[in-house]
Amino acid sequence: MRALISIDYTNDFVETKAALTTGSAGQAIEEALVEVTKTFTENKDFVVYAIDSHDTNDPYHPENDLFPPHNIVGTTGRNLYGKLADVYEETRKQATVYWIDKRHYSAFSGTDLDIRLRERGITEVHLVGVCTDICVLHTAVDAYNLGYKIIIYKQAVASFDPIGHEWALNHFKQSLGAEIIE
User: Could you tell me the CATH number of the domain that includes residue 23?
Assistant: First the structure.
């Protein structure tokens, strides 16, 4: 059994002048990311939207020292970007679609994702979204440590750091045994 985990494809990470944008790199993956999501949804596979959820001026969150404020609860920056927002709105009431608010890079950290996957008998996770070398990477590492098979869609992941993006793609394959779909 398989699941798709769509990570942080939000306005704050993709819009041109957003808080922590991947810019044109993130915009360029929209079509591929949406197509993968539609395929999983139509097949009735489990589709998880794992989305950063931050509070304004949270003094306890370590990301505040690393990045500008982003994906703040109650702001439009936290909304899904472009056509993915439409796909989510059309399918969000399906039993196979699940939204996770996450405070940390990994979709597994502090969430019930592992429980949700295991109760459905899922052994294979497919990852799309941003940023390749941050949230996608940390989700993949946790998936590896939990024993999941990992599939990464190269045309559906992006970063604001081209060197980090390429490094992460290599790391997925060489260190986590992930399959990279071109």
Answer: 3.40.50.850
**154-168 residue pLDDT tens:** 999 999 999 999 999
Strands 46-52 and 179-181: unpaired
Domain that holds residue 76: 2-181
pLDDT confidence of 6, banded at 50, 70, 90? Answer: very high
Those residues with Cβ within 8 angstroms of residue 142's Cβ, 6 or more apart along the chain or in another chain: 106, 107, 108, 109
Q: Say what the pTM is.
A: 0.96
When pLDDT is averaged across residues 21-49 and rounded to a whole number, the result is 98
Backbone angles phi, psi at 135, to 5 degrees: -70, -40
Total of domains in the chain: 1
Listed residue (127, 126, 114, 146) closest to 7, CA to CA: 127
Rounded-to-integer distance, Cα 102 and Cα 62, Å: 14
- Stretch (H or E) spanning 127: strand 124-130
